[in-house]
Specification:
Elements lengths: L1 E5 L11 H4 L4 H20 L3 E6 L6 H14 L4 E5 L7 H4 L8 H6 L4 H4 L1 E2 L5 E4 L8 H5 L3 H9 L5 E5 L7 H8 L3 E7 L5 H13 L4 E7 L1
Parallel strand pairs: 1-8, 2-6, 2-7, 3-5, 3-6, 7-8
Antiparallel strand pairs: 4-5
Helix pairs in contact: 2-3
Amino acid sequence: MVLNKIRRFWSAENRTIIAHTHPDSVISEQFRMIQTNMKFIMSEQNSRTILITSSEDGEGKSTIATNLAVSLAQQKKKVLLIDGNLRKPALHSFFNTSNKIGLTDVLTGRASFSEAIIHTEVWRLDLLTSGVVPFNPVELIGSQRLPELLNKVEQSYDIIIIDSNSILEVTDTKLLASQCDGVILVTQNGKTKLEKAAEAKKVIEFSKANIVGIVLNQ
């Protein structure tokens, strides 16, 4: 299911949370359409933890994840946004915050969740950055501590949005997908080849993950 076609408005250097800075814009309305479509799918499937990924890098998944999380928080949902991209983390730059303590520190026991969590300026939206980039991301993502963490935070949040690396490039994204209730695949119109998108879909399904929708960037 295509959740929405969204006009691309960013570059790699432009970390824009347009759903927060320009809530009345056409782009913000598109994010509201995505979260509305998600609402029906998630209620049917009892999904609360959603992974955002793509077939290749540079297709806007971090921007989609951030603005979608903001849009959900604006609809009075308590949202946790997690940077699960332990190789090329980006979410901290959207919020102009530190990435010294984050997910990797919680998973290794160096910090508690309460010590690592960041309460953003967006009401009801909390951020868990990636933390310091580790030398063993696959081992961390594949550890038992991650599902334990997700089970814990599901008791405090209405929805958890996880940004990740591209699904075809690294193994840890496949492991992440298998531990989430649903996956949204971001594809860039004119860049993502049809066979790449089809391959990404197969990999997600092979990981026993559930694709809840696709977002097309134009």
